[in-house]
Amino acid sequence: MERRVRLKRNITLLRILQIVRSFTLTIPIIVIFYKSAGMSIQDVMLLQAIFAAIIVVVEVPSGYFSDVLGRRKTLMIGSIFVVAGWAYYTVASSFGGFFVAELLLGIGFSFHSGTDSALLYDTLLELGTTERSVREEGAQLSAGNFAEAVAGVLGGLLAGISLITPFHAQAIVTIVLLPASWMLVEPIVHRTEGRAASMRDVLATVHDAMVKNAELRWIIIAGSIMGASTLTMVWLLQPYMLNVGVPVAWFGVIWASLNGLVGVFALRAHTLQERFGDRSTVVLLAIAVAIGYAVLGTWSTWIVLPVVVGFYFARGVGNPVFASAINVRVASERRATVLSVRQLGMRVIFMIVGPVVGWVNDNVSMSVALYVSALVFGMSSLVAVWLWGRSQRTSNGTLTSNVEVNSRIT
What we know:
The chain is mostly helical. It has helices at residues 2-22, 30-36, 41-69, 71-89, 95-112, 115-127, 133-159, 165-173, 177-182, 199-212, 214-243, 251-267, 269-276, 278-298, 309-327, 332-363, 366-391, 403-406. It has one domain: MFS general substrate transporter like domains (Growth Hormone, Chain: A), CATH 1.20.1250.
């Protein structure tokens, strides 16, 4: 009984981790902060592409580390790096300094990415309540985005003191990650004895997910494209608002409102999934994102800013839907690695597309950059979902009778 209580506490602790990670006081003004240090939008996108490259290098090995040595230890190590990264931002004042801070944050977030979802699912598995996985993933994401909404308002107020003040506050708040990750309990279903970490095992898992298992491959690719599409808008939104004359004082409020909506959408993600199914839900998200980019590219005015809600709808619904789709198809001891592959894919796509969009923005126009984003993300996501659907069919064209069992990686 005591162990069940401690396992249930995992869900609360994971929510705390999500809240603290998402309580980003700096994000509503970070592009302005970068510009105050002499950086262009292309520089901003390049810095974030470097951050993506760091995650590409660390993401999958960190997932395997989680699978072999435990979720709890992995989250603890990641927390240390995240705290160090935000602390370094308080003394950085140039591209080089920001690079070091992003390096530390990239490693830390990589160790958290996928591991938290895997620990949540393994906890539910031991408790015998895996049917709640989408609901719980949505609740975790919702809590994080409500936290980000509150942080957006506070960050804007703190920026009124100075642009560096939100970074000092961020470094202090993030310390909570350390005791929260230490208090977690490792689910029994995950413990694997006698396994030694091996890059061969990592590559074998990636090969199984991306080559042998066609359905899982296209789920991961579709999720990666969707994640990159909304991440790109995160970095374009602030310069867009500056271009259309939105007062900087409103940035925090707008950021808070959008992330509050992500929380609402995440809470209802399971409803959409249950009603329409995974693929139809993702098609809806892809259309919302493509239309959003196209509308913003066509009209450069604050009046069309409400279409940005579509991107945050995709963020709120997409993450729990894709996480659940992967979780039910992958065995416990390989789950964190495969979840990390999806995050890696998102970063690889952004690493390629982000600097290109930034260059187009600086050298052609923001409207063209937005059109390019609409075309690239809209077409690629719909193609990925179509191939996902094809992969569910057998050689005679009929739907597989039990996708969860037949496509499960063990």
